[in-house]
Amino acid sequence: MCQNGIDEPPSQFPRSVAVRVMPEIAPIYRDLGVRQNVAMVAFPGGHEIHVPSLRAFLSLVFGPQ
């Protein structure tokens, strides 16, 4: 999963770059047999972790805790 803050500074990892590289990343996940784990989450904020979507993703991948 790629998380991307919509306020990410252009000098870091802006959403435009994230959108552009996702099609390049997806085949790697497919080859590893985890195609379902390719996701991109855009959220309000900058260069930070969006905890709610991270928890949801980890719960999906590893099961509820």
Keywords:
65 residues, single chain, 2 strands, alpha+beta, 2 helices, flat, two-stranded parallel sheet, 12% strand
Describe the structure.
With 65 residues, the protein is of the alpha+beta class. The protein has one domain (2-62). The chain has helices at residues 15-31, 51-62, and strands at residues 2-5, 40-43. It has a two-stranded parallel sheet with strand order 1-2. Strand 1, helix 1 (15-31) and strand 2 form a beta-alpha-beta unit. The radius of gyration is 13 Å and the shape is flat. The model has no long low-confidence stretch (mean pLDDT 92).
> Overall 3D geometry?
flat
Count of beta strands = 2
| Number of spatially distinct domains | 1
- Mean pLDDT across residues: 92
SSE topology string: EHEH
Please tally the helical runs, counting DSSP H or I stretches of 4 or more residues.
Answer: 2
Low-pLDDT stretches: none
| Intertermini distance | 19 Å
Strand order of the largest sheet: 1-2
Largest beta sheet, briefly? 2 strands, parallel
Helix and strand composition category: alpha+beta
- Percentage of β-strand residues: 5-15%
List the helices and strands and how they pair.
Layout: E1 2-5, H1 15-31, E2 40-43, H2 51-62
Short synopsis of the structure:
The protein is an alpha+beta fold and 65 residues long. The chain has 2 helices and 2 strands. It starts with a strand and ends with a helix.
